[in-house]
Amino acid sequence: MKSLYVCIEDYQGQGEHILVVDDEKTQREIISVLLTKLGYSVKTVSNGEAAVEYLKKNSVDLMVLDMIMEPGMNGCETYKQAIQINPAQKAVIASGYTSTDDVENAQKLGAGQYIKKPYTLEKIGLAVRDELRKKGL
Predict the structure, then answer these.
(1) pTM
(2) Any residues with CB less than 8 A from the CB of 2 and at least 6 apart, and which?
(3) What domain range includes position 121?
């Protein structure tokens, strides 16, 4: 019989590079701690514009994108620009709000699953691991 419990080993990283894009400093800090604890290499930026500039010079295995960021580009627009730089760019969408048209539009462009904040180690770990596996990492 299959266990209902998931072991942390099932969603630990192996140094993959994750870019977290969130306008709220506290949220960036929380997810950075969680992902680092899981074994990922994490870079955080506070808006979509900074994410796009970072991606022009650096590659990342996955982005964790907040959908609603004020002011400036939202998560969907950020992802649109990210896939212009790297058409295979993987992303997980995060928001404290319910799924929106922007979430669905980003997913139609290729973004992965949507996770609702607040973050938990298991929730973010499983979402990131699942998306990275789709990429073959």
Answers:
(1) 0.89
(2) none
(3) 14-135
Bridge partner list, 94: 66, 115
What is the C-alpha separation between 113 and 106, in angstroms, rounded? 10
Antiparallel, parallel or unpaired: β 62-66 and 17-21: parallel
Task: Report the number of distinct structural domains present in the chain.
Answer: 1
Reported as a pLDDT band with limits 50, 70 and 90, residue 44 is very high
Contacts with 67 (C-beta within 8 Å, 6 or more apart), sequence order: 74, 75, 76, 93, 94, 95, 97, 100, 102, 103, 106
113, amino acid identity: Q
> From residue 12, how far is each of 75, 117, 133 by CA, in Å?
25, 20, 12
CATH of the domain at 85: 3.40.50.2300
Q: Per-residue pLDDT tens for 75-125?
A: 999 999 999 999 999 999 998 765 577 788 888 888 888 998 888 899 999
pLDDT in tens, 9-20: 778 899 999 999
Residue 28 resides in a domain: yes
